[in-house]
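name: query_chain
kind: protein
chains: 1
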Amino acid sequence: MKAKILGVLMITLGYSNFQNNCDTGYVESANSSQESCVPELFYYNSSTQQAAYFFESVILDGLPLNENDWVGAFNGDICVGARKWDIDDCNGICDVPVLGQDSQLTSGYMQQGDTPSFKIFKASSLSYLDATPIENISWSNFSTPVINLLYACDESNCEPDCLGVFGGLAVQDCAGDCDGNALVDCKGECNGTAEFDCLGECDGIAILDLCGVCNGDNSTCLDCMGVPNGNALVDCEGVCNGMASDCDQLNASIVDDFVVVDTYPNPFNPDINIEFSLPVNDNVSILIYNAYGEVIKKVLDNKYLYENTYKFNWDGKDNTGNQVPSGVYFINLTINKGFSTRKVTLIK
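structure:
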């Protein structure tokens, strides 16, 4: 009795130490024929009574096992053998050792005529799955049965798919081909070509323009040279693609009887300032033109102003209150005896 208790204590202490040396879900094995760390439920003792069950293919959810997955053999709830299923390590076809009873340490192991059951250990989720062999073969000492298929299912059912793979995911496409790639288009036609356009219309003709706008005209992303998504910018002197970079924003230019102060910032987003000086009282108009020469905004419409310096702001909206798209615009300032036009660029 003392020896028996001592044996249990030794095994228990050893098992406790095993857990500390392995990753979560694994225990260390003292069995020299096993990996140093095995799944917790796949620990077993050595025996002189043994068989090897070979499986030509082991499938989980229609796919071969990962090289880190395991296959274990059981007699009821007792693990009687296990193998890490790395087919490269066993020349393409692996076997599961299935051990028989030969001592107290292997009590409950296989005996002549018993039929083993099998489980798959899925390493990615540390889960155990009941596995089904394509045929059941009873155990006998030193036997080496070869079984065509062992399969299990975790994320699929275990019925054969259209390719005959148990737990497989292959299905017939709309043309009736197993694992084919024919699809039903938006008109309901198998292998049809109809698609939804960018407006959501089936087989519609709307497409994205170069600016990424559905059914657009490429005008919302023009640079100052009129190139969609171009890189040309207006420099601080008002020159498109110019090289000037150190300009005085308040550098004034005299046009007839009034002084126009530079528009700034330029390029702008979302608004731009317009400064000018009047040496005498006068009627003043500030109109914004698009690249097509159309007036889109009246900042001032023939308003009578007294001699002074003024600053007005254009918020990037047209006369209807809608935000105008990115692009080149012209700010035209007019008095009774002259005008000045500045090219500006709105970039969003």
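note: Residues 2-152 form one domain.
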